[in-house]
Amino acid sequence: MKRLNIALFISEFEDPYTNTLCEGAIRAVRAKGYNLYIFPGSFLDSRISPVFEDDYAYQHNCLFQFITEKSIDIAIINLGNIGSQLSMEDKHRFLETITVPVILISDMIDGYSCVNFDNRSGISLGIEHLIQEHHKQHFGYVSGPRNNIDAVERQRIFEQVMMQNGIAPDQYRIVEGDFSAGSTRVVENLLDEYPEIDALICANDMMCYGAYQVLAARNMRVGRDIAVLGFDDAPYSSKIKPGLTTVKADPALLGYKAVGLCEKVLAGETHNLMVETSFVVRESCGCVELMHTETHQDILSIQANLDSLNHTLVAISRNILNYEEENSKIYFMILNSLCKMNIQSVYFYTFTEKIEYKRGQEWKRPEDARLRAYYREPRARIPDIVYQPMPIYYYPVDMEDIKEIEPDEQRIPFEQIFSNKYIKTDQPEIKVVTLLYAGEIQYGFLIWDVKEEYFGYIGQLSYQISNALKTNKLLHKKNQMAAALEESLQQVQEKNSILEEISKVDELTQIYNRRGFLDSMKRSVILKSNGGRNAIAVYADMNNLKLVNDQFGHEEGDYALRLIGQILRDAIHGMEGVGEVGRIGGDEFCAYLITDLADGEALLRQKIDEITEAMNQENEKAYYVSMSIGMKSFICSSEVDISYELEQADAQLYQYKKRKRVSILK
Q1: Least C-beta-crowded within 10 Å: which of 103, 279, 306, 382?
Q2: Nearest to 363 by CA among 38, 84, 82, 42
Q3: What are φ and ψ of residue 227, in 5° steps?
Q4: Of 140, 206, 199, 210, whose CA–CA distance to 175 is shortest?
């Protein structure tokens, strides 16, 4: 037969009531051989967590939409806790989103099976104990949220017991709390408005914890100046001082009974089960102080788990902070740190694309998720114990037991996140699902198989892992921005280089302008590799530019200037050595040549004359283009004054000007 898959919707594990409820459900599924998947969400009514003040805790509620008909058979919903302040309309709206049969805990809605506490017997005994044994006459009652069925029933019972014992309405006050230890302001207002109060009753123990703080601040001694009565018998109620007199309502029984109904509900039956409550006497009502003992072994075990948790949190942070860049091994490294705690298995999923989810939006379940890596304990591990000074348990992890999934095999359909080829299904399993998010961004989720004593730590670990993922994403973004900036800077440099070159080029002749030529000549002359070599400074002036302009027009004058530049460039680049040419202004040109030729000046003049004659023969112009040239040889060094050398070449030019052609016509 197919093993039954049960989803359990709860609030955070840090709530003692929730933790105890889970313990009962786990006992039941183990006895029956079912699979249990626990979803620790948040409050559907947008309350802020009393444990962690997280404005984005609403993200956890997306977990309630994880289940599909293919993955889950039935859902047990602790609606009295996660939706205690919802209106009936909103409760119906939420339940309509659940596509499998539902069993409710701590709530009662027509058409749904439910499991609730029988509040009457325990509360009645507790209140009558205060009246008859301690002779209390002035009562304050802190109720729970008005939309919570248990809160409504407990308040009704309180009022009935008051009436049955002859206590008139003017002898008690009723105020509304929210079932959290944060209901302190409500208690303060109650004490201010009704100073005669000698007995305080709270609809659950958590509100009593907050009331203890208020009473201590007012120097009111619990059990002497005022009696206090709670409801739940939460785990810490016997440990606080003085011990809290309360009504024992064991949440474990709610979870156990709810699991026991699953097969009947799937068969179409509807049931309304009631769980008995009982009265527990401790010192807060004024009775004789009872001794409470706690074994040394219990303390050691708790401290060892806490130290192990702290070291795991530090290890996760250290592994990510040790890298300056995005770490592609992030999933492996997180699991390697995580599994040094007593974890049987953990599956690390990310969403295919990160999900941005804002308060009030509708969250849509993606079609698939990516299984990045997982750890499955191959055998029971014996911890290594390190004393520093308290014992820290390190469970050895073999690297090969942490499996990274190949990218082309990572996609898992959402209805298969609990059952795929990477998950063992031969034994009943109990798994917890936690969301990984930071602010409005959701990264993925974890599916855990851990001992129940670690449930209270799962939330902190998930937050730390989320921080590691966010840091890794930020490093990736930083690297992308750095690469984009580098590319942008390179483009700017290239454009600046182009602009630099353009600013050095003469627009008409496309050779260097004055600035470009002088920069080029200076760099080449002082270059160490050219030190001691022969160089020639050339100064040229076009002959008869004014005559060409006057007789043939300025366009032809521009052509003639371009031809002079081309002649000089071809001559310089056609010689053995290196050099460049520039137009200094108007009809004046300069050039330089660094060469090892023995008779460089004569050879360069000959080259210029040959090219000049050839170009004049090739073009069809009616005029002859020529230039007068002066040259000056010098030796390259860092001490050379290039302006002086060019002036010397210019002085020689005027001697050659006397020999220029008289007529410009061919």
Answers
A1: 382
A2: 42
A3: -90, 145
A4: 140
Number of Cβ atoms within 10 Å of the Cβ of 543: 22
20: Cα separation from own chain's centroid: 32
DSSP string, 634-649: EE--TT--HHHHHHHH
Range with the poorest average pLDDT among 466-480, 595-609, 626-640: 466-480
Tokens of 90: 């909103």
Per-residue three-class SS string for 70-92: CCCCEEEECHHHHCCCCCHHHHH
Q: How far is it, in rounded angstroms, from Cα 504 to Cα 498?
A: 10
Task: Please give the pLDDT value at position 297.
Answer: 42
Does the pTM exceed 0.90?
A: no
Q: Give the torsion through C-alpha atoms of 366, 372, 378, 379, to 10 deg.
A: -80
Are 231 and 148 within 8 A, CB to CB?
no
Which residues, at least 6 apart from 186, have a Cβ–Cβ distance to it below 8 Å?
142, 175, 176, 177
Q: Is the pLDDT of residue 434 over 90?
A: yes
Look at 507 and 324; give whichever has higher pLDDT: 507
**CA 412 – CA 368 distance, rounded (Å):** 5
pLDDT band (50, 70, 90) for residue 322: low
Nearest to 597 by CA among 581, 574, 614, 580: 574
Buried (b) or exposed (e) across 639-648, using 16+ Cβ within 10 A?
Answer: ebebeebbeb
**Strands 172-176 and 139-143, sheet pairing:** parallel
> What is the DSSP code string of 449-488?
EE-GGGHHHHHHHHHHHHHHHHHHHHHHHHHHHHHHHHHH
**Measured on CA atoms in the order 84, 140, 209, 133, is the torsion positive or negative?**
negative
Closest CA to 245 of 280, 291, 211: 280
495 or 126, higher pLDDT: 126
Helix, strand, or coil (residue 18): helix
Digit-coded pLDDT (tens) for 323-333? 544 466 888 88
Question: Apex CA 172: angle with CA 123 and CA 212, to 5°?
Answer: 65
The total number of residues written for the chain in this structure: 666
